[in-house]
Specification:
The protein is an all-alpha fold. It contains nine helices and two strands, in the order H-H-H-H-E-E-H-H-H-H-H. It is flat and about 95 Å long. The mean pLDDT is about 80.
C-alpha cells in the first residue's frame, strides 16, 4: 500500500545536498536527451501533426509551407524535437524534482503537494489540446480569410516553416501555461499568501486581468482570445470552489494536530 513517509530523520551536509542536486539534474538532462533523440527521429511525423490544423484551414488541394533560408527546415525540426522531447520526458523530470524535494517535507506537506504535481501535466495537456483542436483551426481560417485580391494583385498566404512553428508553439505554450492558473492559486492559498475571501473580493479585477492576459498571449483575433479567456474564467471559479474544500481540510488537519498534541501533553504529565 502506498504510504507517504514523514520528514527524513537523516541530516545531510550542504555538500551532500549539492551532490544530490547534481545527480537529479544529470538524470533529468539524460531523460531530456533521450526524449529529444527519439522525437528527432520522428521529427517529420511530429511536424506533420503540427501542420495538420493549417492544412485543414486551406481549401482542398491548396496551401503549402515554404522556407526562405537553406537551414530553416533543419532548425525547425530541431525545435520540434526539443519541444516534443520535453513533453515526453516531463514525467521523469518531475519525478527527479520530487525525489530531491520530498525528503525535506513532512508527510502532511507531501500529501498537500502531490495533487499539484499530478494536476500540472493534466491541466497543461488540456490547454494544449484546446489550442490544437479548437483554437488553431479557427484562428488559421480567420487569418487565411484576408487573402484574395488587392489593387489588382493576388494576395496569397505562403507561411514559412519557421514562422508557422513559432505561432504553433505560441498557441500551445500560451494555452498550456495559462491553464495552470488553478495550480498557482491553490499553491498560494495553501501557503497562506492569499485567502479565498481576498480572491472573491478581487473577482472583477481577476476577470479583467484574464481577458488582458488572453489578449496578450494569443494572436490578435477576438475568437482565440475569447476561447482562452472563458475557460480561464471557469478555472478561476473552480479554484475558488477548491479553496473552500482546502480550507476545510486544513482546518480539520489543524484540529487533529491540536488534539494529538493535547493527548501527548496529558500522557507526559
Amino acid at each position: 500500500m502506498f504510504e507517504v513517509k514523514d520528514l527524513d530523520e537523516t541530516r545531510q551536509p550542504l555538500l551532500d545536498h549539492l551532490i544530490e542536486l547534481r545527480t537529479r539534474v544529470i538524470r533529468a538532462l539524460l531523460a531530456l536527451g533521450v526524449g529529444f533523440a527519439i522525437c528527432f527521429y520522428f521529427a517529420d511525423e511530429i511536424l506533420g501533426l503540427l501542420v495538420l490544423p493549417l492544412k485543414q484551414a486551406f481549401p482542398d488541394g491548396e496551401g503549402q509551407l515554404i522556407f526562405t533560408k537553406l537551414p530553416e527546415v533543419f532548425f525547425v525540426e530541431l525545435k520540434v524535437a526539443l519541444f516534443a522531447g520535453f513533453m515526453v520526458s516531463f514525467p521523469v523530470i518531475a519525478n527527479q524534482l520530487w525525489a530531491f524535494v520530498a525528503p525535506g517535507l513532512y508527510a502532511r506537506e507531501k500529501k498537500a503537494f502531490l495533487p499539484f504535481l499530478f494536476a500540472t501535466p493534466v491541466l497543461f495537456g488540456a490547454g494544449a489540446a484546446l489550442a490544437y483542436f479548437v483554437v488553431m483551426p479557427v484562428a488559421f481560417k480567420f487569418f487565411l480569410g484576408f487573402g484574395g485580391e488587392a489593387g489588382g494583385l493576388q494576395v496569397q498566404a505562403l507561411p514559412s516553416a519557421g514562422d508557422y512553428l513559432g505561432l504553433v508553439m505560441q498557441f500551445i505554450l500560451a494555452f498550456g501555461l495559462t491553464f495552470l492558473l488553478p495550480v498557482l492559486l491553490l499553491l498560494l492559498h495553501r501557503a497562506g499568501i492569499v485567502s479565498r475571501a481576498q480572491m472573491v473580493a478581487a473577482r472583477r479585477y481577476v476577470i479583467v486581468g484574464i481577458f488582458i492576459i488572453a489578449a496578450i498571449v494569443t494572436p490578435p483575433d477576438p475568437g482565440s482570445q475569447i476561447v482562452l479567456a472563458v475557460p480561464l474564467w471557469l478555472l478561476f471559479e473552480a479554484s475558488l470552489l477548491l479553496m473552500r474544500f482546502q480550507e476545510k481540510a486544513v482546518a480539520a488537519d489543524k484540529a487533529a494536530r491540536e488534539v494529538e498534541a493535547a493527548a501527548e501533553g496529558q500522557a507526559a504529565e
